[in-house]
Amino acid sequence: MTDTVLQLQALSVSLPAHGGGRLVPVLDALDLQVRAGGMTALVGESGSGKTVAALAAMRLLPRGARTSGQVRFDGLDLLAQDERRMRRLRGRIGMVFQNPLSALNPSATVGAQVAEGYRLHENGSRAQARRRAVELLGEVGIPDPARRLDDYPHQFSGGQRQRVMIAAALACDPRVLIADEPTTGLDPLVARQILALLRRLQQSHRLGVLFITHDLSIVEAHADRLTVLYAGRAVEWGGAGRFFAAPRHPYSQALLAAVPRLGQAALQGIPGRLPDPLLLPPGCRFAPRCPHHRPPCDDGYPPALGDAVEAACCLFPLAPPVPARNMNVVHAPPAGAAARQDDAALLALERVTVRHPVIGARRRTAPALQEVSLTLHRGECLGIVGESGSGKSTLGRAILHMLRHDGRILLDGQPVADLPGPERRRARRRIQPVFQDPRESLNPRLRIGDALAEPLRLGGLFDRARLDREVAALLAKVGLDPSLAGRWPGQVSGGQAQRVAVARALAARPEIVVLDEPTSALDVSTQAMLLTLLRDLARSEHVAYVMISHDLAAVSWLADRIAVLKDGRVVEAADTATLLAHPRHAYSAALVATAPRVQDGAGQVAAGPVRLPSPPA
What we know:
The protein is α/β, with parallel strands linked by helices. It folds into 3 domains: 4-245, Rossmann fold (3-Layer(aba) Sandwich); 335-430 and 510-599, Rossmann fold; 441-508, no CATH class. Helix content is 32%, strand content 22%. The strands form 4 sheets. It has a 6-stranded mixed β-sheet, sandwiched between helices. The chain has a 6-stranded mixed β-sheet with strand order 16-17-18-13-19-20, sandwiched between helices. It has a 4-stranded antiparallel β-sheet with strand order 2-1-4-5, with helices on one face. Helix 4 packs across helix 5 (126-139) and helix 5 packs across helix 7 (158-169). The longest helix has 18 residues, at 188-205. The protein is globular, with a radius of gyration of 24 Å. The protein starts with a strand and ends in a 23-residue tail after the last helix.
């Protein structure tokens, strides 16, 4: 039997409310085990308490937080240790944070940051630490690690920065690795490499992994055990094989149904929002959003169903439901089906090339984008897919005229770079961005309401009452409570921050929105809501999108056409149905093969409406 290396026992956490005063309960009596050589997945929507559980285990909660229960690591209760002892123990528990850009020091080289933990905890020399850093960077897939050792975080793509974080977490050969959304921002090919790396480490070092994610498809082939968290409370837990074969809790079924898959025409979002931690329902916390809600659900928190089925639901066990991921689908026209391809292009790129200076080599440049020619029509969505470092974000920034480039970018047939200053500013206002990292794009010194009001003021709206109404409407449009207008960007979850960034882009009423990994920080339910919203806007208002993403399944659901980018070049461009069914380039075929797809029981893409199963009468 495998040994338990990390165990949470009835762990409860309350955090100070914004502005001080009362404590807010965010985690309630969580039990969880991580075994040596195994992976336990902790899944749930953004704001469900997943990251709080990880921070509590590492004793990294903010000042004023209150915890109860136990966090046992190799027999020690971490909550009972003094800070001096805890600092030593943290060397044996590696952690990969969700946002590598904020976790990495921008003023230190990646080699120094990977080696830092090794030098502190292993007492290694500078030369030993440097050799260890090269070894780890190579192990996590950084090309030419010895040369990249002295580069800085901003010189790496988003996916590469995440791999640097994983290398730093592994520096001291930890017994446990807590991975908080480690594949966020990674293309599927690289995500598979990272998961394969974690699997090798589990086997070779008997490393226990606590894998925190909102995307159940990520852990389906890797997790041994799984716990589903909702509003701070576990609703289902146990062996991953049993879970994926037949999830029992309605919330678990809804999470599986929300995962985008190739061939899926309708995304299954979860209506409503997580409850306010200060106003939790008296019974099942999921009851207000549950399609199977019955009066008994409101009587009290349901007990676990017993040893055979580890879930907390008063309606089950019933007949095993059909797994949500095998639900059938109908095929619908793409977002911009109404766009006429024979019309003049709204946006046209003609042989656009971007070159970046080579670090350490004077007057030398390397191409990041090479002679890209693409068009975008009104009401259409153009998907741009490729692995990290392929030039996707560079292309988006060139369209936004944030980078110097060769070639021409035309808006309504006019080269934007040739327009006079005032006209160029008006043209750029017609194209709005949503960047990959919302915390990087939102001003930390502006409250969310002020950040959303800023583009409205630039558009000539100054009436305070009307501004407040417009801000509240924008927040509601992207599925957020209007009360968030008074918060700072650092006081909301990653998924909420990304939705704020989308709302800010929509505030300017643009004709084109450049979406750079818009769903990378979102849980699958919120992602379904956001993609559905974007598709509705494309149809009703003829907003056009350039959607840059590594998630081919999400792109394929929204995009009319897809361009595949590799090493700065477009290797294939075709309408979405053609590219998915008959990719011509080997790299395109590899991307299609890694994406999850809707299947029937025989493993074939099916047809028919998507519905969550109803409980038997």
